[in-house]
Amino acid sequence: VAQSGDEQSRLTLRDIGEFGLIDRLMAIVGPGDAAIGIGDDAAALGLGGPDYLLATVDMMVEGVHFRLPSSPATDIGRRAIAVNVSDIAAMGGEPRHALISIAVSPDLELTVLEEIYQGLADEAEQYGTSIIGGNTSRTTGPLAIDIVLLGTVPKGEIVRRSGARTGDVLAVTGTLGERAALHLARDAGLDLRPWREWVGTAAVPRPRVAAARALASRHLAHAMLDLSDGLAGDVHHLCAASRVGAVVDAEHLPVSPQVNAICRALGENPVDLALGGGEDYELLVALAPTAVDLAREIVAPLPLHVVGDVVDADEGITLAGPRGRQGLSAAQSWRHF
Amino acid sequence: VAQSGDEQSRLTLRDIGEFGLIDRLMAIVGPGDAAIGIGDDAAALGLGGPDYLLATVDMMVEGVHFRLPSSPATDIGRRAIAVNVSDIAAMGGEPRHALISIAVSPDLELTVLEEIYQGLADEAEQYGTSIIGGNTSRTTGPLAIDIVLLGTVPKGEIVRRSGARTGDVLAVTGTLGERAALHLARDAGLDLRPWREWVGTAAVPRPRVAAARALASRHLAHAMLDLSDGLAGDVHHLCAASRVGAVVDAEHLPVSPQVNAICRALGENPVDLALGGGEDYELLVALAPTAVDLAREIVAPLPLHVVGDVVDADEGITLAGPRGRQGLSAAQSWRHF
Lengths: 337, 337
Fold this sequence. Notes:
Shape of chain A: globular
Oligomer: homodimer
Structural class of chain A: alpha+beta
Number of helices of chain A: 11
Largest interface: A-B, 79 and 79 residues
Distance between the termini of chain A: 28 Å
């Protein structure tokens, strides 16, 4: 018993993973008093007016989420804003204000930091978001950029992860696996010059604010989240919050020609990238089958693809393919630890 | 010319310092659309109701702001909340909600992180602050904890840095140099066991929420900020925002018996610690001389010491001592870079 106690006390984050960690930390900090607290894409506060205030925070760390100097430094700033805007969008909200907290080595070249801030400023402006504050810290380690994003959503239009119902379909905007394919292609040293335009769009996610607002304001989305971990893991998140199961259809996952071509060149399966690549920042929506046509119309020209069905919780979460159904593991997702 | 251009492009943060950096970054991100934006202790947003929403963010980095494992890990969490609560207090506000963003190595022991979160939760609870969200990231470097704090203040009671007027006095709550003395004593290996109680209080700042609220709601504070960089630097901040000068009286800086004793033991000058030690998290207030008695009454039993006078900007910022007046440099402050 003493020995197992010792082992327990030496547990690291690597042993329990990100979601095990979040569960343990939530048990310490408690549920909070927000209208919507920890566990959704953003917290929501009812401050007395007609809107909820939405608040989210997301950190990007050099060596984990980006590299220096190989990334264009403006892209680092743009991505940092974009992934947070995406969380606000996933609640049906509009981004409004950002605070920027950054930890930098005293030896970092000033021009690199200025490029990152130019990217932050450009991307914030593109989404009507004003930078209202922040903080600079020294670090002896990798550059870390933490973005706080505040947004608003009319109280009657907020969309949570928890509203999916048996009989709904699951749909995603855009295409999947773009960023994962870009990572693989760069790591393998593929010549991406012929695809310069695709590289530019795959490098910085385009949060789906307008599409999400349209779905929310028309009350078409029963549940919604933005795909950050990968479809497999994020379907698990949506199902856990909604207490439902799901069948994901492997043959209907939307993959772009460029991702297919990279997969062919590298001997990868595009379904794996679509399910587990992560960092898509497309919307995953649960909606009534009868609402799909209208939903497609209002998010056009952005495509909306039906990729599965919501089923009862006791049917679990499965992947349907040409050879039948198999369990779909959340672990196919990109893991933070 | 080409050579000086090259030098320019290789400037690092070490060359320009934290405040030079902030100026450059502010020029990139612009002024924002908040009622009060970058440059005060917290940003303020008018959301339509009777209160401003206050928002501030502050990052603490292992090896810079704390050490592992030598700090008690709960103290790390408590300080992280406290320094942000202090920023909300300095605007005259009440802390309400926190989001916690943390970057951790996968090899960190889980118990250490749980202790930090216990400290975060305990300190948040002490100030009536609910933890409503957050984010966990992986890092290959030092542990970084970024706290977002949201608060509220009635619109008519907000206190800025910019309201000090010639003829005001400058006053500080509590005593100065406590944390700096603790750092020095620990670095020198002084035996602090006889002062265990003092060590406990010096290790975690006690943000002056109630005192600040009282001064703000009675409209006694013309300008206020919380002392984080050290009195010398923070007087410069207040004077810059208010476009005034100041005379700080070296003989009236409040220093505790413990700080005096540590200074005697180490051959340090307590005035230096009081001016430049940093991390005091006491309030610096500009108020009318006629308001001092009432202000003392309403912040009691917390002491309020008059430490100087606000003068015209063209008189500069000086330190008055037994041998006359001399220029008071902001550089006596603790520097982040």
